[in-house]
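Recap quiz, item 2
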Amino acid sequence: MSTSFWSFANPNKFMRLSGALLPFTAVIAAALIVVGLFWSLFATPSAELHGQGVKMLFVHVPAAFFSINVYGMMVVASLIGLVRSHPVSHLAAKSAAPIGAAFTLLAIVTGALWGMPGWGSYWEWDARLTSILILLFFYLGYIALWNAIEDPVKAADLAAILCLVGSIFAFLARYASLLFPTLHQGSSLSVDADTNVDNSFYYPLLVMMVGYFFVFVTLLLVSVRTEIRARRVRALRLAER
Amino acid sequence: MTSIFWRDLALAFRIGGGAGQALVFFLLAVTLLAFGTGGEPDVLRSVAPGALWVFALLSCLLSLDRLFQADVEDGSMDGLMLASTPLEAVVLAKAAAHWVTTGLPMILAAPILAALLNLEPAAYGMLILSLAIGTPALSLIGAIGAALTASVRRGGMLLSLLVLPLYIPTLVAGAMAVRASAAGFEAWPYLGMLSAITLGCAALAPFASAAALRITLS
């Protein structure tokens, strides 16, 4: 039996592998989040300018990071789904959307709560904030299109087209919003930059980042498995008629 | 292709007054803005460039939901798919007809509405120029959304949810061009961005819409 990546287009094979992986990713996710939260909330110093507000960093930064990267994953999954008529890939994109939207919302809410003590306002129309808000709209539109079309095969292909078109415009909007004045600081997590945060923040943040990744993988697997089962139920119901 | 263009134009003019409705909506929106903000000339002057562009977006959105839906429902789209004209060209012709009934009248009416909103006199030329360059992009991007939702009944709300975020880059470039020239700055960089968006959309949007229509009708 071949074990190429493409063989997971077969839902049965995907179900077997994901069922075996799921307990591990779930345990790793829970462990990393618990360790990361305790470390970041109780074992880090409070920052000079932010006071205790800096603790927001550990929830905000990974959420913002994954809000963008989950959309990137959806673009890849949609492209594979569209080009290779890969049903599991379509379902992966569909399942990733609500999780990505939740990360985006989390990033916006924690950012707003952090912005009030930090900048003195909950919201500013600056480049980074605006582009993440636009990203939220793209997620919501994508989810709405899936829900609006009854035939799941057509819905998958149409939503994939929307996702690809959206990625181009999200990119454009990102650069268009650079025309606005900015309050948000630049990136502070590059591998080599001098502007990185101090190590006492860096390591717990890294734990949280990896923890978020496993949370995403776990939720994604659960959701794709649910979608596959829902589709089987639908097929059975149609067959009964 | 030209016959599809004229057919759509004739349909638009005979059914719902065509160009008139989007224009009246544009005028009403401006009036509502004046009422909502209390009609202060200074307030209106500062929001005029952005407001005119936003209203242009919204009135373009109004007639978008029937762009393909009517033809999908009565089966003429199946005929158009079988025709020797490629579907991409059909999309382009329909988007052009949509632009003539919504974008073009807005460009012609823009100076009057700009006067109502007390726009800086220096920016009149740029407003017309930016609308002339930017509104074709609105019809083309809208065609993608209309194709995606062609099979959805009561898809108007969904359509605006899909299309409005896609309009953001066009809006930013267009409104910035008008604001820059109202403030006495150089507006050409923004106009360049706007032309890039329109040309990019003209090149790519027909393919995305046609792909979506093929899926819908398959």
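The radius of gyration of chain A is 20 Å.
The mean pLDDT of chain A is 81.
End of item.
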